[in-house]
């Protein structure tokens, strides 16, 4: 049975308010009302959206908020593909077309792309809502070209998120709190040697480079 979080992401009403209301509020929750997560997110995204002729895959793209940002400075034949399982989210994404973006429905556990297809692969604010999320990391690495990068933003266990009440509420809603080394260890098992992890507030930003 889908979790509460999964049902919400597939709801047309949630998809309609996600970009303008849901996502900003959720970012504030990560920062406990502060601006740490939002500020690092802005810098992280700016790096990934640097100018160049690259192919980018945005996994669990939702309504395309990051997909459009990542495509903004691409040059030449550069293109950014957003993939999501939610038809409601994708329907919202295509209402704001961009010449360097396209969207496709797909399962993050079985990405519909060949090995070594993309220069940059991202997965933002989604892994903690996906059932059995660790195999998704294997897929992110699989479709990344050698020398390419994988960027992840997700949850992390902290003093606050390890409190019994917080954990219970999160689990009931289908929300997963990842251990400090859980994401990085899985990346290493997938054969990644260079990994940069930054924990900000209640979340973690991870940048991995495929050998």
Automatic annotation (TrEMBL):
Keywords: Methyltransferase, Transferase
InterPro entries (alphabetical): Methyltransf_25, SAM-dependent_MTases_sf
GO MF entry, a single one: methyltransferase activity
One Pfam family here: Methyltransf_25
Stretches assigned to the Methyltransferase domain: 56-148
GO biological process: methylation
Annotated protein name in UniProt: Similarity with UbiE/COQ5 methyltransferase
């Amino acid at each position: 049975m889908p979790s509460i979080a999964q049902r919400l992401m597939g709801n047309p009403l949630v998809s309609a308010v996600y970009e303008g209301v849901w996502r900003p509020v959720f970012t504030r929750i990560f920062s406990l009302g502060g601006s740490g997560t939002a500020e690092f997110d802005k810098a992280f995204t700016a790096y990934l959206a640097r100018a160049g002729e690259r192919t980018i895959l945005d996994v669990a793209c939702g309504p395309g908020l990051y997909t459009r940002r990542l495509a903004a400075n691409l040059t030449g034949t550069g293109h950014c593909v957003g993939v999501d399982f939610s038809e409601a989210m994708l329907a919202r994404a295509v209402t704001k077309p961009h010449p360097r973006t396209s969207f496709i429905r797909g399962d993050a556990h079985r990405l519909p792309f060949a090995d070594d297809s993309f220069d940059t692969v991202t997965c933002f604010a989604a892994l903690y809502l996906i059932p059995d999320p660790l195999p998704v990391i294997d897929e992110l690495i699989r479709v990344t070209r050698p020398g390419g990068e994988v960027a992840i933003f997700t949850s992390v266990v902290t003093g606050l998120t390890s409190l019994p009440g917080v954990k219970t509420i999160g689990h009931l809603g289908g929300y997963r709190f990842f251990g400090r080394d859980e994401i990085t260890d899985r990346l290493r098992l997938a054969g990644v040697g260079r990994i940069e992890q930054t924990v900000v507030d209640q979340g973690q930003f991870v940048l991995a480079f495929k050998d």
